[in-house]
Specification:
The complex is a heterodimer of chains A (114) and B (111).
Chain A (H helix, E strand, L loop, with lengths): L3 E4 L2 E4 L5 E7 L5 E7 L5 E7 L6 E2 L10 E5 L2 E6 L8 E9 L4 E4 L3 E5 L1
Chain B lengths: L4 E3 L2 E5 L4 E6 L4 E9 L5 E8 L4 E4 L2 E6 L4 E6 L8 E9 L5 E3 L3 E6 L1
Parallel strand pairs in B: 2-11
Antiparallel strand pairs in B: 1-3, 3-8, 4-5, 4-9, 6-7, 7-8, 9-10, 9-11
The chains are: A mainly beta (114), B mainly beta (111).
Chain lengths: 114, 111
């Protein structure tokens, strides 16, 4: 299994600003992902964070709004740019254990944009 | 995008009753996982069932998988008030590494 730490756990931000969320894993993992969970909704995949190359975004998500870094196999960041109240959500980091074909999730970052 | 549909969307039962939640999905999968999420908190991984398995048990949980119908069910027996939460199914696709979530079922267990 993998232990995932996310920072910050929660934040309240002003509209128009940006927030960078960090995800640290306790072991090297190939596959890392970022999800968004809007209030009362399920989790939606934002993008796959690729080490050494640009992230792969799902339909409806773009790099300008959600830039992602993946400098090594244990760390990734997601930035929520130019925030609006509609960006208020829980953002979760996830890793995929290829050996056991199982996904693990961080505790999430609860973002409120005012 | 979301892979699956879950039903019911919401379920309200009395403590001690059984709760059954269903999940359908669209594409071929490698595995299917069920998660619980208490209000506003992190995901708790409940159980994983692989595509070559038909049924799996863990404590009061029973999961079935029917790949021919592209569906799964989660049964919680002898429910407790503490089981009140949202339950999500999530699929791992064949040949891929993404985990895609269903819409979820909100379970209310009344004491």
């Amino acid at each position: 299994s993998a232990v995932i730490s996310q920072k910050p756990s929660r934040d309240i931000c002003q509209r128009g600003t940006s927030l960078t969320i960090q995800c640290q894993v306790d072991s090297q993992v190939t596959m890392m992902f970022w999800y968004r969970q809007q209030p009362g909704q399920s989790l939606t995949l934002i993008a796959t964070a690729n080490q050494g190359s640009e992230a792969t975004y799902e339909s409806g998500f773009v790099i300008d709004k959600f830039p992602i870094s993946r400098p090594n196999l244990t760390f990734s960041t997601l930035t929520v740019s130019n925030m609006s109240p509609e960006d208020s959500s829980i953002y979760l980091c996830s890793v995929f254990d290829v050996m056991n074909t199982e996904a693990f999730f961080g505790q999430g970052t609860r973002l409120t944009v005012v | 995008s979301q892979q699956g549909e879950e039903d019911p969307q919401a379920l309200s039962i009395q403590e001690g009753e059984n709760a059954t939640m269903n999940c359908s999905y669209k594409t071929s999968i490698n595995n299917l996982q069920w998660y619980r999420q208490n209000s506003g908190r992190g995901l708790v991984h409940l159980i994983l069932i692989r595509s070559n398995e038909r049924e799996k048990h863990s404590g009061r949980l029973r999961v079935t998988l029917d790949t021919s119908k592209k569906s799964s069910s989660l049964l919680i027996t002898a429910s407790r008030a503490a089981d009140t939460a949202s339950y999500f199914c999530a699929t791992g696709s064949s040949g891929g590494f993404k985990t895609i979530f269903g819409a979820g079922t909100r379970l209310f267990v009344k004491a």
